[in-house]
Amino acid sequence: MSFHFFFSFLLCVPKEEEGQGNRYTDVPSPNRERTGGLFKFKNPNADEEKSKKNTFFKDEKEFRQKFQYTKEIEVQNTVVVNSIVVQNSPSDLNLAIKPGEQLDIIDVTKDDKIICRNMRGKYGYVSIENIACS
């Protein structure tokens, strides 16, 4: 085995053989665009994902300030809103809900309300009478 052959195999460069001209291995030439593990490509959805993450943290921070909530935010259960929604007093603390919407229960209060998070990441109070029994 010649020294040239060994390096041409490792470096994947063309090997010249007598009488046959240039013979190339199955490797892209340097002027072709390379894909794969050698280069990092920017995820086209990276900006959108970053924006969603920032919005999520912003909503959580706003929730903690409005409700003066100091506990760790843990989902205790997932519920569905009734088909008939009764929202008595719209306020800044009540969560706007739609029939059939899925909500995460974050905490239960002493009143007849629970603190919920919708799938858009918004937090607020929801009356127990608006939750479907399963």
Automatic annotation (TrEMBL):
Residues 63-131 form the Helically-extended SH3 domain. Residues 1-19 form the signal peptide. It comes from the Eukaryota. Pfam families: hSH3. The keyword Aminoacyl-tRNA synthetase does not apply. Keywords: Phosphoprotein, Signal. Residues 19-46 are annotated as: Disordered. This is FYN-binding protein 1-like isoform X1.
